[in-house]
Structures are given as structure tokens and as C-alpha cells.
Amino acid sequence: MKILRPIIATIFAIILGLLITSIAGENPLDVFVIFAKSGFGTPYDVGMTLTYSMPLILTGLSVAMAFKAKMFNIGAEGQLTMGALAAAIVGAQFPTVNPYIAPLFAGLCAAAAGGIWGGIAGYLKAKRGAHEVITTIMLNFIAAGIASYVTVYLLKDPNTQNPQTVPISNYYVLEAFSYFEGAPVTYALFLSIFLAITAWIFLYRTPLGYEIRCVGENDAASSTAGISISRTQILTMVVAGAMAGLVGVGEILGRSECFKLDFSPGYGFTGIAVAFLARGNPIAIIFSGLLFGILQKGASDLEIYTQNVTSDLALVLQALIILAVSADGLWEKILTRKKAK
Amino acid sequence: MELTEWLNNLSSIGGSTIRMSAPLIFAALGGLMSERSGIINIALEGKMLAGAFTAAAVTTLTHSPFLGFLCGGLAGMLMAALYGLFVINFKSNQIVTGTAITILAAGTVPFISQILFQNTGSTPEIPMGNRFIHGPIIAAWVIMGLIWLWFKYSPYGMWHKFAGEHPDALQTSGIDVIRTRWSGVLLSGFLAGLGGATLSICLSSSYTRNMTAGRGYMALAALIVGGWRPIAAALACLAFGFFDALGIFLQGIQMPKLTADIPFVTQFWNFLVSPQFIQIIPYILTIVIVAGFVGKSRAPRALGQPYLRNR
User: Fold this and answer.
1) What is the pLDDT of residues B124-176, one digit of tens each?
2) How many Cβ pairs within 8 Å bridge chains A and B?
3) Do B90 and A272 touch (CB under 8 A)?
4) ipTM exceeds 0.90
5) What number of other Cβ atoms are within 10 A of residue B246's Cβ?
6) Where does the signal peptide begin and end (chain B) (predicted)?
7) Nearest CA of chain A to the CA of B220: how many Å?
8) Structural domains in chain A, sorted by start
9) Residues of chain B contacting A267 with CB distance shorter than 8 Å
């Protein structure tokens, strides 16, 4: 029943979301058809769906990783901003790094930047007792401020009015697979899937992952058993931040080739939804990330094909899914009533 | 810069500080009402956004800023009712649900805006005569005073505090914790909605896309810096409003920059005098305070714990 819940909740939320479009004067069935077509219609559509999914899988993993140690990472947005910024700075400032290791180098820097940003929240939680929800929200704004400063004053691209940094060197650019007819699907896709599988192995098959889960289940017992809670909390947030930071690989090296201010439509916050829909299971996150990618792609196409429905519908659907999945008490009520009959 | 110019700048920053802190005060007081009763409120941003849009839309359609202001509050209350239903009755996780409410508002508001005005970006310009000039700004401080009195002298205020500190004791003394928390959450939504309304029909002349721009979170930060106390929270809002106003002021003028090329030092110094840095000071300050580096702000003891009646 536990596995069925997210599925039922998602179906329920999508049906409700489609019904809402009828308020805007659209036929919900037509809207559904547009959704289905825009997700998988052509190789390009599939490619764009995957492009939206990649960062969501990574931020979903980031949120889920922290949650395994019973911490809420509301800061994936800031972590991915710092990661992407690091990738863009490295790509622009060290143009002649050997092309075989250049993307790897930038990726490591992105992971490190995200990891540091997550680690700050982890450190403050472990050593100073500062609630991670508050610190990560604040760190999001601080990251946005730093990114804005770098983009406007330090690395501004003089050839455009848009707030973006100078392009990265060609050595760093990831080639898009030709199959997807121009959609920027790169090796970053494999990176995100690989990381999801690695995260599962890490959490369920290594001693360190076991410690993280122990701390999440019962910190008092873990402490008695000799696990250092503060070390585990810091480490978890570093790993979580690094995963969000890697969003920069796909987005900067594979897609925009420079850092654009506000490039993220809230990937970090959607990551919360992705993680919760998957109930924190890294393998399931691949699929929930894909689902949210489809929603994002479908909603942006609705903006083109309908009169009144805009891409904001994706946000409404996300919110409905989170509400439906996380409502434990509602589920209990429904299930116990069934049993009573 | 001449003295008169300095004085002029100072008074203009002072004026905009008072104006720009008003939405924050409303939202922070809203956060206070809910968090004191034990319900975390990271959905302030969403409630403010709903309030900002509704106030502008209603004022545009009815030409009455009073009605608009009221409806802005009611819109925030509606979002809060949804939040309350999930976190109080269904015992959903407060942080996850709060995030969902903010996302819901961010998606629903442009959707309705598109249907009503064929524009997701903004509502039509409200003529000067239909806007508030000072009303909401004074109201924010008056309400702050009322809430202070309420907590200090009224039994309801005391029950409210107990719901957040020690709900079991409150229930034992015969007061319904669930009902107390509901009233806190609804009031919180109403106040946050008023904060949004202040933004759209008092500080500016229409709703524009994502106009709250993180003010809900800034209000939350001010609430924490103020140690969950009304007067201190309002003063923190004033301080945060000052940094906001200063940042915007600095964007308009050219700040003296260090031109000497000392590696890192030059860049770091120039960052410190940039408007970007001035505007993140409140967030840094909040981290410093929650981490207990200067004084420690104590949260209500039962904050974030769902209340289970027959325990």
C-alpha cells in the first residue's frame, strides 16, 4: 500500500490539475493530449523532457540524501546556484585545460562549491544547533546575491544586455547527442542516473550510508552506538550540496555555456517535490524526476497551444502532488475507513 | 557630496525604510501568530503573493482600496486555511506543506491573472486616487501594538503561547489546542495577505509577477532575529527594510570602488560596497543569530510538532 500511495496521489493531483484548466475554458481532455504529445511526440520533445528532468533528479537526490539523516534541505537552489557559478567561472577563467579533463575539472569544482554551500548549513546545524531549514533558506538568498554580483561586475559578458557571464571555453562544452534533434541532452543525463544508483548503493550498502540512515531513524541510539552525529550531519549536507551543485554540469557545460542569472526556474524547490514523491528512494527519484520533467515540458507547451493555460500550471501540479503525497493523516483516514467497512 | 545632498539622501532612505518595512511587519506578525501557537510558517511568501495579487485585482475591479486591502487579507487567509487543513488536521509535515503552499500560490496567481486580465505578468495600473498612501504603513505599527497587548494582557494570548510551548498543559486545562492553533494559522494568513496587499496597492500601483521577491522569507528571518516577540520582530523588520532601501539607493549611485589591483583584496572590498552585498546583510545576520554567534533566539518549544489529541 505504501508504494501505491504516491502513484494514487499523483494521478489524483493530475486529474485535479486538468479539471482546473477547465476554469480557464479549456477542455481537460485536450490539455491531457497536449501533455502527452509534448512529452514524447518527437525525439526533440523527448530530449527536452530529459533536459528538464536531469537537474530535477539531482536536486531530488540532494533533498532525499539530507532527509535520510532527518534534515530538510530547502537549500538545493542555493547549492545549485553556487555549483553552476563555479562551473561557469572555471570554464571561463581556465580556458586551456586539457579538453579531456576539462568537463571533469569543472564538474568537480561545481560539486565542491555546492558541497561547501551545503556543508555550511550542516556545520551550523551540527556545531551551533542552527536549524537547517532557516540557514538553507538564508543561504539561498546569499548565493543569489553572490551570483548577481559576479554576473554583473566580475564576469559580465560585454556582448549582451542580458545578465550573463562570458561564455565558457570550447574545451568545456559537452556535445549534445544528435539523436534528440538539437535538444541539449548530454552525458550529464548519464551522470544524474549514475548518481542516483550510486546514492542508493551508498545509502543501503556502505557503512557510511548505514550511519546516515541510523542518525535519521534515531539519533540518540546512534550516538550511544558510537556514531558521531555531528560528523554525519555535516557529511550528509556536504554530499547533498555536492549533488545539487552538479546541476551546473548539465545546465552550464551542456546547455547555456555561460552562467545566466535566474537560469533555474526553481529546480531546488521542485527537488523537494521530486524527493517526496519518491519517498526518498534514490532509484525512484529517477522516475519522479522524469515525471516532473514531463510536467514542466508539457506545461511550457500548453502556453503555446492554448489560450489561457500558461507554464505556471506545472507549479500548480507540483504543489498538488506534494500536498497529496505528504498528507499522512488524510491517508490514514481514508485507509482506516476502508478497514472499518 | 555636499551636506544638503547628504541630508536629502538620508531622509529619502529613512522614508523608504519605513515604507518598505511595512509589508515585512505585517508578514512577520503573521508568522508570529502561527509560530507562537506551534505551527511553522515558511509559506509566508505564498500568502503574501496571493494577498498582493488579490488586493490589486479587487481594487482594479471595484475601485475601492479598502475592499482590495481586505480581500488581500482574506486571500492570504484562504491559503492559510488550506495549510491549516493539511498540517493541523491531516498532520502533514509542516515544512514540506509550507513549501507546497508557496509553490501553489506562485502557480495559481499567474493562472488567475491570465484569466482575469489576459496577462500573467501584471494587473492594470491602479490610478493614484484609488491607492493607499500611508494607511497600511500606520496600520502595520498599530497592529503590532495590539498584538503586543494581546500577548501581554489577554488570556487568549496566553493560551496561544501555551499551544506553542506546552500544548499538553493547555489541553489539560480545558482549552482546545487544535482550535487555538487554527486561529493562529488563520490570523497569520490574514496578516501575511495584508502584507502582500500593502506591497501592491500602497508601495506600488499594481501587482507585478513575483513581486514579493523573497519578502516572505525575509519576514520569517526578521521574526527569528526578533526572537518571536512582536516589538523586537517589528524592529528587525525596520532594520531589514533599511538594508533593502539602502541597496536600492546604492544601485542608483556610483559607489567609490577600489581600483588598486591587489589580488582578491580588491575584489572582496568592491563586493562589500556593492548593492548586492548590502541586500544580503539581513540573511547573513539571521544565520549569525540562529547559530548563536550573537545572542540566541529561542523558538517556541513545541514548534513544528503536530498535536495528537488522545495521546
Assistant:
1) 777 777 777 788 888 888 888 888 888 888 888 778 777 777 777 777 777 77
2) 150
3) no
4) no
5) 17
6) none
7) 9
8) 4-340 (1.10.3470)
9) none
